[in-house]
Amino acid sequence: MASDVCLELVVVRHGLTQWNLDKRYQGQRDIELLMPDALADMDRLRLELEGERFDAVVSSDLTRCRQTLAHIAEGRGWPEPRLDQRLRENDFGEFEGRNWEELKDDPVYREWIDSAGELAPPGGESAQDLRDRLALALGAIFDAAVEAGHRRVLVVTHGGVIRELRREFEGVPFWEGVVGQAAGRRWTLIRQAEGITCTSSSAVPRQASVSG
């Protein structure tokens, strides 16, 4: 593995879905965007990225991410995206399709909430499971950067993925790492032999609000 590889990574969340409005755990369910309601946030992100060039584009393979990417990338001449299942949302197992109101009296759900995701939902992934596959996804992005000379990469993914990456790169507590729809973070990352470190972080769009 090459040392001192520096990469600017712009990582954004998909646009609005009906399940976002309903506050349901989507996880790895293949939910489409809610149109036209999703457009306002995605238009704001598209405007923020106007004039930017990326050496590579990587996306979760789930429909809501692919739709978001298609909207913000239209006419931009960015590279053909590479789809990576490892960038999917956390697998919430039996909690998927349900919301807090439906789950709040379930003791297993309360234990999961109290653990800040460290426990695995029934039939789902723990935070460590998510971290393990995100490490592989990031490794692939850095390996491609070394091979092809990439310096700026766009990633379209999910809220739980960004929250976990913020915990790793920014030291943000689990419950404070949420980003809004079609919003995310811009990181400068350096991969060395001992691992990946973050040297700068900012919101995308720059005035993005944080919401559930």
TrEMBL record:
Keyword presence, Acyltransferase: no
Domain of life per record: Bacteria
This protein's record includes keyword Transferase: no
GO cellular component terms, semicolon-separated: cytosol
GO biological process: negative regulation of glycolytic process; regulation of pentose-phosphate shunt
Pfam families: His_Phos_1
UniProt-annotated binding residues for substrate: 13-20, 64
Active site positions: 14 (tele-phosphohistidine intermediate), 89 (proton donor/acceptor)
Sample GO molecular function, one term: fructose-2,6-bisphosphate 2-phosphatase activity
Keyword terms, alphabetized: Hydrolase
Gene3D superfamilies (UniProt xref): Phosphoglycerate mutase-like
Alphabetized PANTHER family for the sequence: FRUCTOSE-2,6-BISPHOSPHATASE TIGAR
Protein name per UniProt: Histidine phosphatase family protein
